[in-house]
Prior knowledge:
Elements: E1 2-5, H1 15-19, E2 24-26, E3 32-34, H2 47-53, E4 59-62
Antiparallel strand pairs: 1-4, 2-3
Domain 4Fe-4S ferredoxin-type: 1-29
InterPro entries: 3Fe4S_ferredoxin, 4Fe4S_Fe-S-bd, Fe-S_cluster_ET
Protein name: Ferredoxin
Amino acid sequence: MRIQVDKDRCMGAGMCALTVPGVFTQDDDGLSEVLPGREDGAGEPLVHEAVRACPVQAITVEET
C-alpha cells in the first residue's frame, strides 16, 4: 500500500499520529505527514483506522 497526506486538506488534528505513531507524525506547522520510509505502511493494521479517524479525509491509501 502507499500512504499519502494531503497537506492542503490537513487541519493538524493529529488523529493519525495518535492512532499509528510508527507511520505518522506532525511537522513543525502541526500538519500530519508520513514518516520517512514509511510511505508503504509496512503492513501496519491500524493505518486504515487512521484514515477513518481523519476529520477532513486528508489521508489516502492506495493498495499496490
